[in-house]
Write a structure and sequence with these properties.
With 245 residues, the chain is an alpha/beta fold. The chain contains 7 helices and 10 strands. The protein has a single domain, classed as Metallo-dependent phosphatases (Purple Acid Phosphatase, chain A, domain 2, 4-Layer Sandwich), CATH 3.60.21.10. Strands 3-2-1-9-10 form a 5-stranded mixed beta sheet. Helix 1 links the parallel strand 1 and strand 2.
């Protein structure tokens, strides 16, 4: 079977990104799709953009990518924009919204947050109608395969991996590479099946958790003089948003 690695939400955390990419290489996976949020929150936005750009087959737009690509007075955005420089800012401003492809006869759509937009957040505990809305075709998704709705949806944004089933449809969240908010291990997903295949064949959705050097990530954050450093370090060490219980 073909294998596709799906990563998301790097947030400038290079130790986590390198650990995940090393794991993907060990599994001899060549196709890597990133669902966005390359920069923001973490200490190494420029290096994160450069590595993802070099290593990933496709890279999509996240909410932080969109935010950083435009000038505003939010301290983290100002700091990240200075680190990225004009050429990288131009690159992230042009990232596509979503990608569609078949795998083992199932139309699969990947995006950062939802078909409604990169800032439209959907959690695992959201109402069923909101979760089912993730399968909608919208102006954002582009509808590569006409009016057909996808069978499989994969997304990032919420930093917590999960999978749900709805009447022969599947929705999964890939979790976060650089800022996981469920457990303190970097997260990604491997899709296995016949890539681009239209015939109904077997497929798998496999969740992978990768340990990385959290204290090295903390050290890099301290050395960077980045904004909001205490909250960021707390999240890395606890796996909880702003350290909440």
């Amino acid at each position: 079977m073909d294998k596709v690695a799906v990563i998301s939400d790097i947030h400038g955390n290079i130790p986590a990104l390198r650990a995940v990419l090393d794991d993907i290489r060990e599994k001899k996976i060549e196709r890597i799709i990133c669902l966005g949020d390359l920069a923001g929150k973490g200490p190494n936005p420029a290096e994160a953009v450069d590595i993802v750009r070099a290593e990933c087959t496709e890279v999509l737009m996240g909410n932080w990518d969109m935010m950083i690509s435009k000038e505003n007075d939010y301290e983290m955005v100002v700091w990240a924009r200075e680190k990225l420089g004009e050429e990288r800012l131009d690159y992230i401003s042009k990232l596509p919204f979503s990608v569609d492809f078949y795998i083992s006869g199932r139309l699969t759509r990947l995006f950062h947050a939802s078909p409604q937009g990169v800032f439209h957040r959907v959690h695992s505990h959201s109402p069923s109608e909101k979760l089912l809305g993730m399968f909608d075709n919208t102006e954002n998704t582009g509808n590569t395969f006409g009016e057909q709705r996808p069978d499989i949806i994969g997304y990032g944004d919420i930093h917590g991996a999960y999978i749900r089933y709805f009447d022969n449809k599947v929705i999964f969240n890939v979790g976060s590479v650089g800022n996981p908010l469920d457990i303190t291990l970097a997260s990604y997903v491997i899709l296995e099946g016949e890539y681009s295949g239209r015939d109904n064949k077997g497929f798998q959705i496999n969740f992978v958790r990768v340990p990385y050097d959290v204290e090295l990530a903390v050290k890099l954050a301290k050395e960077s003089n980045m904004p909001e450093i205490d909250s960021y370090i707390n999240e890395l060490r606890t796996g909880r948003y702003r350290g909440r219980k």
